[in-house]
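Q: Joint fold for the lines below.
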Amino acid sequence: MQHPVKYEILHICKQTGARLGRVTTPHGSFMTPAFMPVGTQATVKGMSPEEVKEMGAGIILSNTYHLWMRPGNELVRKAGGLHKFMNWDRSILTDSGGFQVFSLATPKDIVEEGVHFRSHIDGSKHLLTPEKSIEIQNDLGADIIMAFDECCPYPSTHEYAARSQARTTRWLDRCLAAHKKADTQGLFGIIQGSMFEDLRKESAEAITSFDLPGYAIGGISVGEPAELFYKVLNCTTPLMPEDKPRYLMGVGTPDYLIEGAISGIDMFDCVLPTRLGRHGTILTDEGRKIVRDKKHEECFEPMDPGCSCYACQNYSAAYVRHLFKAGEIFGMRLATYHNIHFLLNLMERVREAIASDSLGDLRDEFFAKYAGARYNPYSGLER
Amino acid sequence: MQHPVKYEILHICKQTGARLGRVTTPHGSFMTPAFMPVGTQATVKGMSPEEVKEMGAGIILSNTYHLWMRPGNELVRKAGGLHKFMNWDRSILTDSGGFQVFSLATPKDIVEEGVHFRSHIDGSKHLLTPEKSIEIQNDLGADIIMAFDECCPYPSTHEYAARSQARTTRWLDRCLAAHKKADTQGLFGIIQGSMFEDLRKESAEAITSFDLPGYAIGGISVGEPAELFYKVLNCTTPLMPEDKPRYLMGVGTPDYLIEGAISGIDMFDCVLPTRLGRHGTILTDEGRKIVRDKKHEECFEPMDPGCSCYACQNYSAAYVRHLFKAGEIFGMRLATYHNIHFLLNLMERVREAIASDSLGDLRDEFFAKYAGARYNPYSGLER
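A: Joint structure:
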């Protein structure tokens, strides 16, 4: 089948096995490994589309659950689809809504048909099913849409995770049957299985048996220790097809991004840069820096000296701190801008290192400086 | 004396007598009549300096009281001055802080020395004097600084207004004596006198007897009826020198801007466009429009059809409404952008009309459409 989303491998890093690639969708191409800024409610919080573009993002993620609840998928469809509605002409990926509704549901609300839950806005009752998720995503019109899956909480029992993982496969079947726009929207399947290697293997086999334009790893980076995250990541990635993009859902800390790339992941998303930015914390090569802190009161250097972003090129840490203390929106804008730029730039550095077969060196340099470094004990990297 | 702020008249509208001019400061020139967006706390709320520039602002206003309280004038001085601190390389005007501290003080707190008041941030006690206001403004480094005056509340008795107006003149003398940067910062005097024509005349004579680079009208547009506003405006403006810029403080509704220009005013400022924008209301030729209203839910037209601004060119009213309902910062950005653009564009239309001797026509056309129009019964315009 001809999928609307295509993937090419351009180079494999000789030092790490990481993949440099390119994903092409109906709204253009982006280089991988790629970080996708999150625009939950049809806006990357605080940013304009032009700003997200000038930082180099080729794809953003938006949330099906949120847009379904407000303003509603039908309104977005009438507006001409999500791209037009939010003035973003590059690629968009929408999640399935599963992650959000599972967090709003109790175990008895989860049935074979789907998930019963109450809206976080007005408490109204709703049912999200595989069919409904795809219908909403068809209305939104993202280039990449995600299968409706069950993301197990951490920790879960083997029994629970096994049932859940099997259901995720049945739900994928229903998603595919419901998908009405396979010519313009590529549906990715999601591998689940909680922290259990046997279930991850079972899920990977089942999910990748469907001919899809891409596959994702769900259900990790959900609160488990770093060792467990790395173990599951490094046992799952090799089970995924080499000729399709691999998406690690919800991951966005610098250390996980680098290790994810080394593991063979191509796409990542996370609310981290926007959420931290709105609260006055920035990401740097040395770790997080709380710009709002008193100690930056008279710091007339940039927030992150040496950074090439708009915020660091034009404003001092003292100014940004003042804006946060004074409750000014522009402070959130500057910190958010820096954080998204930081992660997009980090991925650019990762891609350059893959191209020059030196991602292992970049990783070593990075972890030597990065505060709170969590070196991956399961990394496939041999040095 | 050679002032650092210069004014040239380029044309007088034959239809109305309004002045097309140019003010030049150490940070460039701007055409008048000009609207100055307000950047209270060293940022035009929600906007970047680049956005304010691309809309065409040549000068912004910032508030001495707010910057004194937070982050402090010494910090701004150490940062290299307000221009560098906030990354704005065009002209800046700072007010004296008087307007704010009078609103925080009771009558007995106002003495010949200055005004005792408590900070709105932490309740700490402070005294603002003419000397202190100028010291702070010298530290901030704006191109145009304002004399510390007493702005009478409305209504005030003739006796109170007379005393207050006389004190404003004595305080101007002290401001001039305290001014340490007369070579780079132009000090404007402020004409007071509440709603009394005899006091306005007295104040105008006293204030304009000082050789200053510009003069302002304070103490109107403070809650009085429109008829009274127009009466005081039109009796005061003719008393001001023709060869100096005339600044009408705190005025920014479209009707007052047009009538102000006809009266012979060159500069205006107001928080209206940013404040309305943050709350989801926009300015249009037809009056105010509450974009947050339910009735715009499925309006896929721009907020203000026909408007050439970034927000109206790229986004629908439905999208902006969604952003406000969802509490998204970008909604405030778009509505604020539109509003500042609207007023700057209105002044551009006013300047073009002056140049073509047709400001009276523009005024008639404007008021024929503008909802809540308040036609100036005291306008000098003869038709």
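Q: Anything notable?
A: Chain A has 15 helices and 15 strands. Chain A touches chain B through 35 residues (CB under 8 Å).
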